[in-house]
Fold this sequence. Notes:
The strands form 2 sheets. Strands 1-2-3 form a 3-stranded antiparallel sheet, with helices on one face. It is an alpha+beta fold and 145 residues long. Helix 2 (45-77) runs antiparallel to helix 3. The chain has helices at residues 5-8, 45-77, 79-100, 103-106, 113-125, and strands spanning 12-18, 21-26, 35-40, 131-134, 137-140.
Amino acid sequence: MEITYENIKSLIVSQENEGMMIKLKFQAEGQETPLETVAVVMPDQDEMMKNAMKQAGKAAAVGTGINMASNALSGVIGGAAGQATRMAGSAAASAASSKAMNVDKIMQTEVTDEKTQQAIVTAFGHLSMYYKWEGGKWVYQTPTA
Length: 145
């Protein structure tokens, strides 16, 4: 039996959307206590790549700017002090580039009905051992070891 949003939505007794996170409770007829889980709306692969490229571009721009400034300053200073300035600038550029790469922004996505439903189906998949499709409906079952 393929799990789809349409065939599991009757099991959803509670759904609280909090941004990209969805708190869910699933309960079948005759089941005493609902099972709770969390679904997370995720960007698709293309969206993650696009977001990552944006973040990489920002990080590169920050690093390049700092390197250019420190190289210019080290040229004015000259000698050993200039070399030390260049090395410090390079370290600062590396640190700033790392800080500019925001993983949260890579994982950002527009929360649509389609993505929400897919996240719910994925979350239910992790609980599917507790349910079986029988007689045109989901039935709660105790999982066997």
